[in-house]
Structures are given as structure tokens and as C-alpha cells.
TrEMBL record:
Lineage: Eukaryota, Viridiplantae, Streptophyta, Embryophyta, Tracheophyta
Stated name of the protein: histone deacetylase
GO BP, one annotated term: regulation of developmental process
Keywords: Chromatin regulator, Hydrolase, Metal-binding, Nucleus, Repressor, Transcription, Transcription regulation, Zinc
One function term, GO molecular function aspect: metal ion binding
Pfam family, one: Hist_deacetyl
Broad enzyme group: hydrolase
């Protein structure tokens, strides 16, 4: 083969993606080095992640530029520009802290001016390159963020409104580039209050923001982010807010909004260019956001937008405060921009009921402006919903769910910081109201679910009765690194029986908090006649099963409503794919129905189908079980009279060495 005939590599990265990062934007930091979520390391970790994935080599690297005042003045007042310009000068040294303290969630130092001008100018730079067609799409890794920065006021960690400045620049200064209509998609977890105001009456800019709102209690805590705010005059209908009513929204919720609001409207609006106010604080793991978008979720959301505006799309970083989450999410996005391969946009979880309610309200409110929103959504669709969200206390952060120790430390640290300096009140409010709710509600669902028996199918350490009993009665067997809290109902299983199933048992993960280093067991519930897994069936109540789910996935989670209720049981029993993911972040959040025994449904929990795919593709490593964990399984099989010691060990050996 000829040298340079790299068909493969070419077809993979045939798209030109502009990428902009400049360390000078790290100069904006808290004056005395106090910890703060919006800190210089945010953009550093993103850049390092992209470098580690050899992304910069595949992109067109663009240079940061300072914005010119006249371009900033399109959306900010002269006063504000003067303030941000001068704030870093020597003469301001003594006044800086006092000024910052008068502003809402703002710090300032001698590097703030330069960083602010660079962030705004870089947003202009990438957007212009895309508009000119020099690159197909582009990403600006910039800070400070911008979407909260009002015409005359810095707030919410934002100094200049980078995205608004870039959009105005194209529309007002560059008519020859023929960008006449711009869609701004603000997926930062907070409402883009300032961007909304700047284009409130402007039909050239369709501003779309999806954010936590909670009826005006979530930052920036006004009514401005409500779905009734649709723009004014010629801009009527060109402002769309999707205000979440609760935390914990994830891929399924966002996909539903994309499918039933954003994409149909985008098709009608037919923008010439799309700018994403790309905050990653709705990402799973974010300490401020409390939402659950995965990197895959972001890539799907982005991919769907790439079908419009001829693929002319710009990502400008906004918020996002968990280093690992923002780095992974941004990487997933850049890969989508670079690669011309399809992405499956499915999510096994269901949107919240509140999500459907909000979607319907938005559609109704805007249907006069966007005919594609006029139809009523079919009930079969809106019936598919997850149980309501409940409050997850911060103290739960030592859950087994966390894969990465390091990121955990970071977010724990952030949480400490946050409790001191950010919104202590709003957090308290959430905690209280949900606890109340929990107290009055939980008796009802518990008594209801305690009347329903299921077989819990154990294939891992739980097949040893003594270990399973830790989850029921509470306590700790030897080999378990920490005690279990147990279930509310401590009654032992009513019946125990053994069965083998034609499914594949395998071991994965490097580490778990329950067992230490080493893999744990998963089941691939795709039936295969060559596979044989020993399963111990425990007859317990559906209430107890819910308590087991929590302990397996997210210790410390406050379950004010069941994770897996009668509706869920009914749906997995009657319809494909006979599995359902519950709203927990652990590795065993996928509940799978394995048929019936004595007319009682058999349920097990394993990792999600996409994680199984990950194990098959090598994205997740298979890993032999931790020794103390393997011992539990051996004891279970031996004491359950299923296998001899030697046979049990060989059985585990085989499952942990055979490829998937
Ligand atoms: C850009 C951004 C959040 C401000 C929160 C203030 N700002 N409590 O995410
Ligand atoms: Zn934000």
C-alpha cells in the first residue's frame, strides 16, 4: 500500500473542527487562592483530557483573542465595559474585593480583565471561523463563563456574556457572512438569564435554555427562566425555556426535550448557525447541578443538533464544576464533532413525570409560534415515566457507585467549599421539603410494596445467605469492608431455591468500596445455551428489594418513593426489553426480569445494557474478582450444596477469564 493513502484515518476525521484554548484565561482566580468551583483548573483539566486523547492534533487550533470594546458594547453597557476593563489595574487593588462582594457570586483579581476579554474575544473568533466556513464547527474552552452576565452587571461567575457577544458580532458586524438566524442552545444547568434578555425582542436569535428552575428557587432564582417567558414584540416565540421542576434530570429527560421541543423547532427556525452555551454542570457528578447527563448523553444531544445549520455549530464553555465530568463530557462532544459516525440516541431510563408535564406546558405555550409543537403528545409516550425524584443527601458520596476515587475526592472537597460559600440556604430548603415529603409518603408505599413478593435472583456474593442477610438485617460479614445498613423490613427471605440460567456471568471493575480492589460479578441477561450461571433465588418483598437496590447502588440515598414500584414491576414483566434502569448511579441499577417461579416474578440487578456493551468492546475492563468477594461466592455455592469447593472455584475462574 502506498504511503499517505490513509483512507481510514481520513474518513474518520474528515470534518474540520476548530479548537481554542489559552492558558491566559487561567489568570482569573480568587484573590487569595480561596477554593471556588469556578477555578482555573476547570479549563486545564479539559485541555489535558483532550491532549491525552490526541484530540488537538486532529483539530484546527485557533488562537485566543481579546474582544474589542465596540463588539462587547453590542450587549453590555459602557459602564460595565469600563468596570471589567479597569478592575485589574493597580488603582483598583483596594476596591476589587469590595466591588466583588457587592455583586452576586463574583470574585475578581488582577487577572480577571484579561481573562474576560479573552473569553469574549475567543467566542467571537471561533464563531467567525465557523461562519466563514474555515472550519465546520468549533469548540472554545473559555472562562470566565458568560451566560449570567447582564448588560450592566457581572453575576453568577460571569463577567462578559461571551456567547451573546459572538452572536451579536456576526449579526451586526458581518452581514456578508450571511448568518441571519442564530440558534443559541443553553444546556448549562442554570438559566441563561442574560442571554435571554439580550435577545428578548430579537427574532434573529432563537434562545433556548433548559435548566433547573424549581419554580424560581434554583440559581439565578427568578421567574425569568419559566416557560411562560417567550420573548416580546418581534421576538415573541423566539425565547424558549424548559424549566425543570426537580433535580436529577438525566439523558432520558434531555432526549425527550430534544425530541419533542428543540429539534422540531430548530427544523422550523432553520438557523444559519448554532451556538451552544455549553456548560457541563448538568453532567452526572456535578456538585452544583444535581443532574445526571452522561458524556454519551451530551454526544447524542450534540449529534442531533449537527443535522441543522449545515453542521455549523460552536460550543462555548459555560459552567461545569466536576473536573472529571466536564473533561469527559467535552471530550465526548469534540469526538462527535470530529467523527462522522452514527450514534445511537437511546436511553433505557424513562423521563420523569415532571419532565413530560414541563414538555407539554412548553409545547402548548409555544404552539402558536411553532406549528410542529401543536400536536398533543400520545399518552403511550407520556405514560412512560420514572418514579419521582427524591433528594440525595451530600453525605452519600461514599457510595459504591463511584468508579473513581480521585474525582470523588474532588467533588467532596467542592461540596465542603460549597456548603460554606454557595447557596447554603437553597440546599437546606431542598433537604427539608423533601424530608417532609419522605416522612408522609414512605409509609404508604412501603406497606403497599410489602404485600408483593418477588424472587430476588443473586449471582454474585449475595448468593451466600449470610452475606445477603447483611442487606436485610444490617451488619457485616468478614471480607466486607464496611457494614450494611440493612432493609427497613428485616424479615428473612420466606423461601430460598437454586436454579441455573443460560446467561453469562462475568467480572468487571477495578475496585469497589465493598470489597476493595478487584472485579465484581455482573450478568449479561442475553440468553445463550452455552452459558450457565448459578443463581440463588430469595423470596422477599418488593419493599425489601427496593432497599437492596439502594444498598447495592447508592448507600445513603434517601428513598422517599420507591425506585422500583408496582408500575415498574408490571412493565418489566409484560414488555420488552424486560429491564428497567432505576435512578441511581451505581453499577447495579439495571433491574432485569428473568421470568417467573411459582408464578412469582424473578428480578435481578446488573449493569446497564450500554455498560455491558462497554465490557464487550473493551471500554470497560473485565477484571477477576476481589479475593474476599470470590470467597463469598464460593461459600454460597458450597453451603447451598450446588458445587464442591473445587468446582466453585473453577466456575468463578472460568467466568473471570473467558472473554465476553
Ligand atoms: C456559569 C454558572 C453558576 C452560578 C451559581 C451561583 N454559574 N451560585 O454555572
Ligand atoms: Zn451553570
Amino acid at each position: 500500500m502506498e504511503v499517505g493513502d490513509g483512507v481510514d484515518s481520513e474518513s474518520k476525521s474528515q470534518r474540520r473542527v476548530g479548537l481554542l484554548y489559552d492558558e491566559r484565561m487561567c489568570k482569573h482566580s480568587t484573590p487569595d487562592g480561596e477554593p471556588h468551583p469556578e477555578n482555573p483548573d476547570r479549563i486545564k483539566v479539559i485541555w489535558n483530557k483532550l491532549q491525552a486523547a490526541s484530540i488537538p492534533q486532529r483539530c484546527v487550533l485557533l488562537d485566543a483573542k481579546e474582544a474589542e470594546d465596540k463588539h462587547i458594547l453590542a450587549v453590555h453597557s459602557q459602564n460595565h465595559v469600563n468596570l471589567i476593563k479597569n478592575i485589574s489595574s493597580k488603582q483598583f487593588d483596594s476596591r476589587r474585593n469590595r466591588i466583588a462582594s457587592k455583586l452576586n457570586s463574583i470574585y475578581l483579581n488582577e487577572g480577571s480583565s484579561e481573562a474576560a476579554y479573552l473569553a469574549a474575544g475567543s467566542a467571537i473568533e471561533v464563531t467567525e471561523r465557523v461562519a466563514k466556513g474555515e472550519v465546520d464547527s468549533a469548540v472554545a474552552i473559555i472562562r470566565p463563563p458568560g451566560h449570567h452576565a447582564e448588560e450592566d452587571e457581572a453575576m453568577g461567575f460571569c463577567l462578559f456574556n461571551n456567547v451573546a457577544i459572538a452572536a451579536s458580532y456576526l449579526l451586526n458586524e458581518k452581514p456578508e457572512l450571511l448568518i441571519k438566524k442564530i440558534l443559541i442552545v443553553d444546556w448549562d444547568v442554570h438559566h441563561g438569564n442574560a442571554t435571554q434578555k439580550m435577545f428578548w425582542k430579537d427574532p434573529r436569535v432563537l434562545f433556548f435554555s433548559v435548566h433547573r428552575h424549581e419554580f424560581g428557587t434554583f440559581y439565578p432564582a427568578t421567574d425569568d427562566g419559566f416557560y411562560t417567558m417567550i420573548g416580546e414584540g418581534p421576538g415573541s416565540g423566539y425565547n424558549i425555556n424548559v424549566p425543570w421542576e426537580n433535580s436529577q434530570c438525566g439523558d432520558a429527560d434531555y432526549f425527550a426535550v430534544w425530541e419533542h421541543i428543540l429539534l422540531p423547532v430548530t427544523k422550523e427556525f432553520n438557523p444559519d448557525l448554532i451556538i451552544v452555551s455549553a456548560g457541563f454542570d448538568a453532567a452526572i457528578g456535578d456538585p452544583l447541578g444535581g443532574c445526571r447527563i452522561t458524556p454519551h448523553g451530551y454526544s447524542v444531544m450534540l449529534k442531533k443538533l449537527m443535522n441543522f445549520a449545515d453542521g455549523k455549530i460552536v460550543l462555548a464553555l459555560e459552567g461545569g464544576y466536576n473536573f472529571e465530568s466536564i473533561a469527559k463530557s467535552m471530550l465526548a462532544c469534540v469526538e462527535v464533532l470530529l467523527e462522522d459516525k452514527p450514534i445511537l440516541g437511546s436511553s433505557v431510563a424513562y423521563p420523569f413525570e415532571s419532565t413530560w408535564r414541563v414538555i407539554q406546558a412548553v409545547r402548548k405555550k409555544l404552539s402558536a409560534y411553532w406549528p410542529s409543537l401543536a400536536d398533543e403528545l400520545p399518552e403511550e409516550l407520556t405514560n412512560r415515566k420514572a418514579p419521582p425524584a427524591v433528594y440525595v443527601p451530600n453525605s452519600s458520596s461514599d457510595s459504591e457507585a463511584e468508579e473513581d476515587d480521585e474525582s470523588q475526592k474532588v467533588s467532596e472537597h467542592l461540596e465542603e467549599v460549597l456548603q460554606d460559600i454557595i447557596e447554603p440556604l437553597s440546599k437546606l430548603k431542598v433537604a427539608e421539603s423533601n424530608q417532609d415529603h419522605a416522612a408522609c409518603n414512605s409509609n404508604t408505599w412501603r406497606s403497599e410494596l410489602s404485600k408483593v413478593d418477588i424472587w430476588y435472583a443473586a449471582f454474585g456474593s449475595n448468593l451466600w445467605l449470610k452475606r445477603l442477610l447483611c442487606y436485610i438485617e444490617g451488619g457485616q460479614v468478614d471480607g466486607l469492608q464496611k457494614p450494611c445498613v440493612g432493609s427497613v423490613d428485616k424479615t428473612s427471605p420466606k423461601e430460598i431455591m437454586w436454579k441455573t440460567f443460560p446467561y453469562r456471568l462475568f467480572f468487571g471493575r477495578e475496585f469497589s468500596l465493598s470489597w476493595g480492589p478487584g472485579g465484581v460479578a455482573f450478568l449479561d441477561p442475553e440468553s445463550n445455551s452455552q452459558d450457565k450461571t448459578y443463581i440463588c433465588l430469595y423470596r422477599i418483598t418488593l419493599e425489601q428489594f427496593n432497599d437492596l437496590l439502594v444498598q447495592e447502588n447508592h448507600e445513603g440515598y434517601v428513598m422517599s418513593s420507591p425506585l422500583f414500584d408496582l408500575t415498574a414491576l408490571n412493565s418489566v414483566t409484560v414488555e420488552e426489553p424486560h429491564s428497567l434502569q432505576v435512578r441511581l448511579e451505581g453499577w447495579y441499577r439495571n433491574v432485569v426480569y428473568l421470568g417467573k417461579e411459582h408464578d412469582i416474578p424473578i428480578l435481578t440487578m446488573t449493569c446497564t445494557p450500554s455498560e455491558i456493551e462497554g465490557f464487550k468492546s473493551g471500554e470497560h475492563a473485565l477484571c477477576a474478582p476481589a479475593i474476599n468477594y470470590a470467597n463469598m461466592i464460593v461459600r454460597g455455592l458450597v453451603e447451598g450444596k450446588q458445587l464442591s469447593q473445587e468446582e466453585a472455584m473453577a466456575y468463578i475462574q472460568e467466568a473471570s477469564t473467558k472473554g465476553l
